[in-house]
């Protein structure tokens, strides 16, 4: 049993076919509510129409009706003018005008043409007019980037279309003629600056303002003042602006900077150059830090000079951190300023025996110290060989002395065993800073 709602007509669709331009092709002309049985149709002139109708319900469209008899509309003047009018200025003294043409079924009669009218905005009262059949026209010998009023009107052999409304467009652009002035530089830090300028007059841009170009050239590094550098860079900043931020400069260098304005046609002349200096920066990281000749309470540190100093080296900052072996927290710290910029090693005393520690070494300039190179080391208890010495302090008493000599290693177990064979020793220190066990 069918759903009674599915038989309810939602709408009617009226289609048409015309035999002159697209014979045999049916197109939708108008939709009509399902409760209406008539429609008033808008038709173009000078066409041979036929029509058909089909119904639409909730299920979908039904089959179309049989076509009507042909209906020939009389010719008439055009009902509308072209749309989507565009103005381009490809060359400095020309203006290209294009538009979407009418469809052939919209001609309303034979002999369709377009009347192109134009005049310079707020300068000329008289319209310049040209009749064309193609949907484009080039106005020649215009002023550079001048505003014009443009309107396009259709006509055929029966008459003119409706009166069009004018639109505004510009003739072709050319490169700007003047440079920004009052260019000033404010150095923010070692690698960045703020540049400002006074904008150019709009009439000298000779086109739609695209923005400003900033050019800079690194002339020399103060670390090697005799070396000729050819390092150039630039950046574009869009829009009508009067300042910009430039990044990526090199520290401790001399630069030259200029500014120019640009439009779609190209770049204008550069401003007078401004020379400025970037200050010293902190050095790069020390490339290597190693420890050698590790003793129980001292170490020899050796390092390399940073390849990037960003200024004149004034020395190094060496920091020592005694670390907790479990939590790695800092137990104690102190630092040493090494004032020789050519130093590549330093003997470090006063380490805690058998402990974990970290050294941080940074290279320094007048601007400060750079990032540290860090290394962790562990001191070892340096064991000594046991040397038994028989000493006669008097004829009735003999004692044994064990002297531990530097730089000879034995295990703690063997050391304890040797001492046990001799009995319980008494630990003393002699004047030669040697460990002496008295028996």
UniProtKB/TrEMBL annotation:
Ranges where the Fibronectin type-III domain occurs: 1-76, 81-174, 179-281, 282-385
Keywords from the named record: Disulfide bond
Domain of life: Eukaryota
Pfam families: fn3
Signal peptide: none
Designated name of the protein: Fibronectin type-III domain-containing protein
Lineage, opening ranks: Eukaryota, Metazoa, Chordata, Craniata, Vertebrata
InterPro entries tied to this protein: FN3_dom, FN3_sf, Ig-like_fold
Organism for this UniProt entry: Ilyodon furcidens (goldbreast splitfin)
